[in-house]
Design a protein that fits this description.
Blueprint (H helix, E strand, L loop, with lengths): L2 E5 L2 E4 L4 E8 L7 E7 L6 E6 L5 E3 L7 E6 L4 E6 L8 E8 L14 E2 L3 E6 L1
Parallel strand pairs: 2-11
Antiparallel strand pairs: 1-3, 3-8, 4-5, 4-9, 5-6, 7-8, 9-10, 9-11
């Protein structure tokens, strides 16, 4: 059974940084695509960052240049480094993984295993 456990969320002020981590387990063949979704109250869940098994990344326009996604398949971990945070970045952030190897945005959450989420709050 696939398990994705996020950590690292919290509250910061505008312009601050946070690093989200995800520990993945339960899939013996190696994930193809991994990434992060976020969902703010009253809004749809959106994919913000995606990385394939070769390390190629893709980002939503709203976070490009500020967020960096990385993965360590030896440790089964996924990381999202978030810099220059804005109040609009406030949301629940979900770690995501899928077996398939066709990666990139847009990301359909129905095609991913998702973690339970970690809250990020950015105050002005």
């Amino acid at each position: 059974q696939v398990q994705l456990v996020e950590s690292g969320g919290g509250s910061v002020q505008t312009g601050g940084s946070l690093t989200l981590s995800c520990a993945a387990s339960g899939y013996r063949y190696g994930f193809g695509c991994m990434g992060w979704f976020r969902q703010a109250p009253g809004k749809e869940r959106e994919g913000v960052a995606d990385i394939d098994a070769s390390g190629r990344t893709d980002y939503a326009a709203s976070v490009k240049g500020r967020f960096t996604v990385s993965r360590d398949d030896a440790k089964n971990t996924l990381t999202l480094q978030m810099n220059s945070l804005k109040p609009d970045d406030s949301a629940m952030y979900y770690c995501a993984a899928r077996a398939g190897h066709v990666c990139g945005l847009p990301m359909d959450p129905a095609n991913y295993w998702l973690g339970q989420g970690t809250q990020v709050t950015v105050s002005s």
